[in-house]
User: Fold these one by one.
Assistant:
Number 1:
Amino acid sequence: MAKSPIFDPQQIPVDRIDSHLAAVPVDRMSAQALQKRFSQPPNWQPEILRERKFLDREPAQAAVLLGVVMRDEPTVLLTQRTEHMSTHAGQVAFAGGKCDADDADAAATALREAYEEVGLEMHHVQVLGELPTYITGSAFHVTPIVALIDPAMQLRINTSEVAHAFEVPLAYLMNPANHRWHVWEFEGVQRQWLSMPYQDGPDQRYIWGATAGMLRNFYRFLQA
């Protein structure tokens, strides 16, 4: 398999935007509505389950915390990885990482990693359930764990792994008018991905790739 060259995803043109799709109604994003949706899940289909493989390596099991901070306007907790990380350096991501043998399940992995990366204590988190496993192009088999986070949390950033932690309004991420598709071709192989750029004060948070793909599946789950 030819190795893809290093490229800047922000320089790849937008192919299309899903402005024609309806946003998730606000009343489906309350704590009570989210709890009910996971206790009584709808009949739905995830849209993106696997990226085109671009790295030869053994598959690795991982889990991430798709944490909804229950502020007056719910937000999603995200991180920006440090530039020296061995994988996905500098990218926006959910807190999370590889499963350890001692982890009881994917939720335990996500909670442990969230504590290690941003100091999120487990008593501030209520796990609701999980979304289908998402397979990245770098062979990570990622289970997204959806949870509610108490806004009283106090984060302590592990600066060896995380450059920034920030929040994006859930309504923004659940509105397809903010979902942009990109297409890139290298040596006859086409790669397609989503981005959801968010202006966070003076900083633009470029949400793309696996993180955007899992958020898109969350959109489909809430909209079903």
Number 2:
Amino acid sequence: MRITGLFRFPVKSMAGQSLERVEIGRGGMPQDRRFVIIDGQATRAGKPLTARLVGDLLAYRAWSDNGRVYVDAPDGTRYEPGAALADALGASLHRPISIAEMPAGEPMHDAHDLLVICVPSLRALEAEWSKPLNPLRFRPNIILDGDDLATYTEDGWAGKRFAADDTRIAGVKRNERCVLPTIDPQTLQHDPSLLRLIVERHQKCFGLYCHVEQAGNIAVGDEWKML
């Protein structure tokens, strides 16, 4: 088993950033889910606004360089998280928006530090669905592949411990999916049949949530070893 993809999402529910290597620690990858969009609409004031509700957020790409976060809008305009981005998003989404920064070391994850998916399972799900599947539908932090990876083997990894370079990672639980994977991250088209399939055949789960036990560096190409 080897790591074949690394991703972080500096602004929750926006498209993210592909990495070749990263140091991970408490909370997962640095800059991952560092910012969250806050809805200002009267009926939802103060609540996080995510692509579950507004899929167009996925048209914005967030990335980080030297500790600073940037957002590239669909029209090519580049912003840093702040008032200008909030105004542009509000105008585009037709609702008042603000942007909140999470406290250091407390990213806005749905559950745990990292989300891991495996390519053989992705391909199996793709065959079941009979349509191509972009892995970024599932917003993984780590993608694994290898001839020694059996289909859906990660479903049994809760409680297992793993090493990648000097990092130690523990499997916590399967990821119970929401509506987000039904949105194609490239076309933004919705297809609810994917979630129905995951519910009916896979107990609504795909991928594995993990916790960082020992901080360290990981890179694309690193071996992923079960301890």
Number 3:
Amino acid sequence: MHNAALTQFGIPAVYRALRVSPDDWPEFARQLKTPGASPLEGFNVTVPHKERVLALACALTDTASLCGSANTMIRTPDGWRADNTDAPGLAEDLKALQMCWKDKNVVLAGAGGAARSALLTVATGSDRAQRVILVNRSRDRAEGLVKEFQSRLELSELVVCSDGAGALASADLIINATSLGLKPEDPVPVPLERIRSGMAVYDMVYHRETPLVRGARSVGARAAGGKGMLVNQGALAFERWFETDLKKVHYTPRLLREIMGRAFDAALNERTQP
């Protein structure tokens, strides 16, 4: 997505994937802090680094600070600035899909970095949900996340539940922010038999139609995968990194998202060809 946009706008940069294991993270972080040791002018991080990357930053945007996690890092003269484009990227896609959460009951599966972004989206602000139920395998982790957010934000009513079936009884919107669904053999994060027509289901998994999305659609629920969130968060990161360059070319936010969306579709199609 990023390389397609770089080509379109004639920006002399390249986006590459780097595999950094948790064991390799300390050395990777050391290089990023050492002047001249890394060619990176900006980078994204994904699981499991979204929380630990904050230690690299000399400054945090409000969104990264509120989330307690970051997915986008921008080099500045003073050091790295941490941002979180997942939360606004999710909000943008939910609104486009007309999956309303204001004054609704939301079930959020997960308690990691992605769940932090989703929690900030649906549980804060003037359009926050009435009630958010966190479902997670580790109840302690979910309760820790709730306490952390409650200590510094005005929130919707938050409830932790280890019983996914019970949580769905009054749900209007279900968001899967776990890694379940990334692999074909993964179990469904919430009981499919409890999903009913009239619900909205959003699965952050973006590279395949998951059993959760497929099952929700089969009973008449509105359901979508995470492609829109992926494109939006990528476009927002791109805008942070190349703000000055984009002022010199024909650019609109919509055009950037269209370019990135087409690039994603092409890459996914190539990946799934026999």
